[in-house]
Amino acid sequence: MREIPAQPFAFPLQRDAVALVVIDMQRDFAEPGGFGASLGNDVSRITRIVPDVKRLIEGFRKAGLPVIHTMECHRPDLSDLPAAKRNRGNPTLRIGDEGPMGRILIVGEPGTAILPELAPIDGETVIEKPGKGAFYATELGDILGDRGIRQLVFAGVTTEVCVQTTMREANDRGYECLLAEEATESYFPEFKAATIAMIRAQGAIVGWTAHVDDILETIN
Ligand code: TIU
User: Fold this and answer.
1) N or C end of the chain: smaller count of CB under 10 Å?
2) Cβ partners under 8 Å of residue 61, min gap 6
């Protein structure tokens, strides 16, 4: 069996049952004028991880392993947007409002799209999700079950919101989860560091963390 060097101990790779899940690498979280910026965040932190996310995606493609993309987004009529989510905080633009890249986090709008460098290719699954977690109100669980996937490698943004929510639920659903450290980012460096620490604490209570280079060397 191949093992990926990881923390808190080596990750026992099942090459026939692993998929990469890239969480929400959308313009709305990475570019000025989008949802992340409307919340007052420095979005340049997100842009900086794009090369490492790209390397990881390309490595999985080269290895013939599945790549799944998620997008946080809502229907144009906002019927899947709870008032509690729309009204939260004090953003300059709320979800569904018209911004410089179209309506914020609405399906089909330019700002809601995945960054072009990381765009899905034919055959890759794209999960549109109305929540922070990728299992809530989506077909992700069924898709993974149908394909016999039992291990998930996670990348994307933001580490402590959509990535961590998804990884925690995946762990409860019985998947072995590995977070790619350089391929995830938060608007808050201290939250990224805390998330990595808490995931792998207590003997991998939620999962493992590993470096992109080590993941790529092991899968290929
Ligand atoms: N605001 C923030 O940190 N994240 C989100 O709203 N969504 C995701 O993490 N994708």
Assistant:
1) N
2) 67, 121
